[in-house]
């Protein structure tokens, strides 16, 4: 696996840094999946039972839930579509790894465009995901929440990848 460059140390603007680190971790997640067979992508090596492909599908829905349904208040079909009947992460059997990855990349591109140039202190509207103004976070809070979600899941994928084929690191 080739290392992915962390955003430059020269970044000082909070928004630029946040956007750069979100993209960095989005890339890290994809990079950790590169080279795994379809069987490895669909197989869990963990007691909790999730597979790398299910994690990627989950992150697609996380972006949709927090930005489209949450921050913009848009209606979203199946906001919890990453969950199966047992309330665990799930990827439909007929969804290929390539399609799962393409949907993730499309959602990330949409997310970037949707929040570009939007001030971090802007609050999500009531409706959509949030029922009251007290529930509605700022864009800054949502983006930092997404960042921690990506960082946590990238770390989990470190372990999964090492168990799958011994690969460690970025």
From TrEMBL:
It holds the Pfam family MST. InterPro entries: DinB/YfiT-like, MST-like. This is Mini-circle protein. It comes from Streptomyces bingchenggensis (strain BCW-1).
């Amino acid at each position: 696996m080739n290392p992915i460059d962390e955003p430059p140390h020269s970044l000082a603007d909070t928004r630029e840094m946040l956007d750069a680190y979100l993209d960095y971790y989005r890339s890290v997640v994809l990079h950790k999946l590169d080279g795994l067979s379809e069987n490895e992508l669909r197989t869990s090596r963990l007691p909790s039972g999730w597979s790398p492909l299910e994690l990627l599908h989950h992150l697609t829905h996380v972006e949709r839930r927090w930005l489209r349904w949450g921050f913009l208040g848009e209606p979203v079909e199946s906001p919890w579509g990453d969950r199966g009947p047992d309330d665990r992460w799930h990827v439909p059997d007929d969804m290929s790894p390539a399609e799962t990855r393409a949907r993730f990349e499309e959602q990330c591109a949409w997310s970037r465009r949707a929040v570009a140039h939007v001030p971090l202190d802007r609050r999500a509207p009531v409706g959509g995901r949030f029922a009251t103004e007290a529930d509605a976070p700022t864009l800054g809070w949502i983006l930092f929440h997404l960042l921690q979600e990506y960082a946590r899941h990238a770390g989990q994928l470190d372990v999964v990848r090492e168990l799958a084929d011994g690969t460690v690191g970025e």
